[in-house]
Design a protein that fits this description.
D-Maltodextrin-Binding Protein, domain 2; alpha/beta; five-stranded mixed sheet; 2 domains; about 270 residues; globular
């Protein structure tokens, strides 16, 4: 089975033990951005993948969620940030660049702009991976939404006087955790293979959470991001999908459904013994 994985360091705790050969990998990994993996899973090129939460909601009839596995936060997330040259209240009508890598982050910033901040900026899609940051700075804009490792790197450059961590803003608004990504399986995928992948990911995740310091060193070496930043970042993220996480996830989906941005439907989980 081909399984999608994101190359960002936020996934290190999920894949660390598998990468080290400590847990047998029953699949072939395919690495991509969240948007790329969304498309590959939808096309049937993958059987299981981590995908944007919004991608699951848009295609829920085709997918099952893997239980107890997600990328979420209960407060600041650090890696999904709106960087701005002026206060967010002044961004009405202004050009805001949005990362093309994650549908969930884009939907979240749109929701916050309309329903929380009460502004209507001009949103323009742009690539915002690590290698794009210099080019991004030359584009005309007042603010930019950046996700993943690139957000951690840009935060260290101090190029924008105002920063809005979307996980923190969501928590202030709703009091709930925010789920950015989930692991989903196609409903037509082999159930036994999916279960084997799910089990390996959970066991690797548990190892990763017990070895965050080691993974932070690896993240620092790979990205050049300060070790203390990597340690704090990985320590603040949550990789579970508890009832409280599901409350935050369904709250997000329902707010989008009310606006007509997503279909309204129940979550469907892979059944486990």
């Amino acid at each position: 089975m081909r399984v999608g994985r994101i190359g960002y360091i936020n996934c290190y705790p999920v894949y660390g033990a598998i990468d080290r050969g400590l847990i047998t990998n029953p699949s072939e990994f395919v690495t991509g951005t969240p948007a790329e993996l969304n498309n590959l899973l939808a096309a049937g090129e993958l059987g299981v993948s981590v995908v944007s939460a919004v991608e699951y909601a848009r295609n829920a009839k085709s997918y099952h969620l893997l239980p107890d596995l997600a990328i979420s936060c209960d407060g600041p997330v650090r890696s999904v940030v709106l960087f701005s040259r002026q206060e967010v209240s002044h961004l009405g009508g202004a050009t805001v660049l949005i990362s093309s890598s994650s549908k969930t982050s884009v939907y979240l910033v749109q929701l916050l702009c309309s329903d929380y901040w009460g502004i209507e900026p001009k949103l323009v899609e742009a690539r915002a991976e690590r290698q794009d940051l210099d080019a991004l700075a030359r584009l005309p804009h007042e603010a930019v939404l950046v996700i993943g490792d690139a957000a951690l790197i840009l935060a260290g450059k101090h190029a924008y006087p105002y920063r809005y961590d979307l996980g923190e803003v969501w928590k202030t608004w709703t009091g709930l955790p925010f789920v950015f990504a989930v692991w989903a399986a196609r409903r037509d995928a082999d159930r036994d293979e999916v279960s084997a992948v799910h089990d390996a990911l959970l066991r690797s995740r548990d190892w990763g959470l017990a070895h965050l310091d080691e993974l932070a060193v690896e993240a620092c070496d790979t990205t050049g991001i300060d070790l203390e930043v990597c340690t704090e970042y990985l320590s603040d993220l949550d990789y579970a999908l508890s009832y409280r996480h599901l409350e935050g996830l369904t709250s997000f989906f329902r707010r989008l459904a009310v606006r007509g941005a997503l279909p309204d439907g129940a979550l469907s989980f892979l059944s486990v013994a």
